[in-house]
Amino acid sequence: MKEVYDFLKECKTYYLATVENDQPRVRPLGTLLIYENKLYIQTGKIKNVSKQLMANPKAEICACNGTEWIRVAGKLLPDERREAKKAMLDAFPNLRRMYSEDDDNTIVYYFADAKATFSSFTAAPRTIRF
């Protein structure tokens, strides 16, 4: 999982795909944290992405560093604990202008049953599960 985290951090921006009814939805994100040996992302509960994940936790992240790309597929499950929210906001202090671990909007999700696939045009795909 650390290799997945490092790759995504190097890319800075990743694209998160969710489903809304029968329509795929994709948006750029950048929050990423390993906390208690799980890979976390963060958003606001009032955002459509959060509503989509609550209705269907299946999601996929995609990012590219120019020569390789990664797809991480799995379920994004909510973690409502204050400690998890605080850890994310401590890692991204610029988010504190909009979010707090004590508000009713901040939510963090962690990957469960995740499969990360590293790909390129010059090598066979490589998979990591976590």
List keywords for this structure.
Pnp Oxidase, Chain A; alpha+beta; globular; 8 strands; eight-stranded antiparallel β-sheet; 130 residues
Short description:
The protein is α+β, with helices and mostly antiparallel strands and 130 residues long. It has helices at 2-11, 48-55, 82-91, and strands spanning 14-20, 23-29, 33-35, 38-44, 58-64, 68-79, 106-120, 126-129.
Mind sketching the topology for me?
Layout lengths: L1 H10 L2 E7 L2 E7 L3 E3 L2 E7 L3 H8 L2 E7 L3 E12 L2 H10 L14 E15 L5 E4 L1
Antiparallel strand pairs: 1-2, 1-5, 3-4, 4-7, 5-6, 6-7, 7-8
In the CATH hierarchy, the third-tier topology is known as: Pnp Oxidase, Chain A
CATH homologous superfamily caption: Electron Transport, Fmn-binding Protein, Chain A
Model regions low in confidence, pLDDT < 50 over at least 5 residues? none
Structural class: alpha+beta
Q: How many β-strand runs?
A: 8
What is the count of distinct domains? 1
Level of helix content? Answer: 10-25%
Order of helices and strands: HEEEEHEEHEE
Q: Summarize model confidence as the mean pLDDT.
A: 98
Task: Kindly provide the radius of gyration, computed on alpha-carbon positions and rounded to a whole number of angstroms.
Answer: 14 Å
Q: What is the 3D form?
A: globular
Helical run tally: 3
Distance from N terminus to C terminus (CA atoms, Å) equals 6 Å
In CATH terms, what is the architecture?
A: Roll
Largest sheet: 8 strands, antiparallel
Approximate strand percentage: over 45%
